[in-house]
TrEMBL record:
Residues 4-61 form the HTH lysR-type domain. It comes from Plantactinospora endophytica. It holds the Pfam family LysR_substrate. PANTHER family: HCA OPERON TRANSCRIPTIONAL ACTIVATOR HCAR, TRANSCRIPTIONAL DUAL REGULATOR HCAR-RELATED. SUPFAM superfamilies: Periplasmic binding protein-like II (SSF53850), Winged helix' DNA-binding domain (SSF46785). The keyword Repeat does not apply. This is LysR family transcriptional regulator. Keywords: DNA-binding, Transcription, Transcription regulation. Signal peptide: none annotated. Belongs to the LysR transcriptional regulatory family.
Length: 307
């Protein structure tokens, strides 16, 4: 089989996302006939059908689903190569960290201060992104590392350092019937409206950031189950109640597998040390730092084979 071109893979991904050749052509800024020909040519080259008709649109075959996933990885890798090459030509070392608002459990200022005190510390730029965008930024090479929350964020293809483990709390309006309880269980929250993040299933209001979420809770439109660290930024008209049987939440620092960077290794080790130092304080907030020995071993094995 001939080598596939990134251009035709990009065409296919847009068609797969739109599930309609006409809409895909409009999105790509091209006429529909040449796009249809490009997809048919791609099918001939691979040797299997990728699309089938579904009413007025199309749907992916089993082979098409596989190609959509694999094509996404190829396109991400191509974009990452461009980003990393361009950044390699910049003057002076620099690290870019992605995080969604409030996702650092209040640790990032201490981590940055400790890192800046290290010899030959690089400039660190913090890229505040939307919910769930960290993985895409890492895969595209737009950032070097990201603060991510498990089990919600996708860390496949990344090495990670565990910084903190949090319990979870329910954020409720002050007048909610459960607001006065010392704790609740998940069964107590059955039937409550909960928010829906972009791209996720659910029936609650779509929420894109923490400020919007808190406003909706205040209005009685929803409640939310979030990491216990969020309590530190709670509005006066909201109440936090521990959820005893909710799955613990892990805050991790993530970066692409096979990265070799002494600069990044120093940042990871510094973050691990700060997390370990904050462990006694975590007992007061419901969080538990990860094992510092395990963190340091991971940082050494994954990053210190620098070029």
């Amino acid at each position: 089989m001939e080598r596939l071109e990134t251009r035709e893979l990009a065409y296919f991904v847009v068609v797969a996302e739109e599930q309609h050749v006409g809409r895909a052509a409009e999105r790509l800024g091209m006429a529909q006939p040449p796009l249809s020909r490009a997809i048919k040519k791609l099918e001939r080259r691979i040797g299997v059908p990728l699309l089938e008709r579904a009413g007025r649109g199309i749907r992916l075959t089993t082979a098409g689903e596989v190609l959509r996933r694999e094509a996404g990885k190829v396109l991400d890798a191509a974009a990452a190569a461009g980003h990393r090459t361009r950044r390699a030509g910049e003057t002076g070392p620099r690290l870019v960290l992605a995080m969604k608002p409030g996702a650092d459990a209040g640790m990032l200022p201490d981590i940055l201060a400790a890192y800046r005190a290290q010899p030959a510390a690089a400039t660190v730029d913090v890229h505040v992104c939307g919910v769930g965008e960290q993985a895409g930024l890492l895969r595209a090479g737009a950032v070097d590392m990201a603060l991510m929350v498990l089990p919600y964020d996708d860390t496949s293809g990344f090495d990670t350092e565990l910084l903190r483990i949090d319990g979870q709390i329910a954020i409720l309006p002050a007048g909610h019937q459960l607001a006065g309880r010392p704790s609740v269980r998940l069964d107590d929250l059955q039937g409550e409206t909960q928010p829906r993040w972009p791209g996720m299933p659910g029936t609650g209001p779509v929420v894109r950031d923490a400020a919007q979420l808190m406003q909706l809770i205040s209005l009685g439109e929803t409640i939310a189950i979030v990491p216990a660290a969020a309590k530190a930024h709670l509005r006066h008209d909201l109440v936090a109640v521990p959820v005893l049987d909710a799955e613990p939440i892990s805050l991790v620092l993530a970066w692409p597998e096979h990265t070799r960077s002494a600069t990044l290794a120093t940042f990871v080790r510094t973050a691990a040390e700060v997390a370990a130092d904050q462990r006694p304080r975590d007992r007061l907030t419901g969080g538990v730092s990860g094992d510092s020995v395990g963190r340091r071993r991971m940082a050494d094995s994954a990053l210190l084979r620098s070029k």
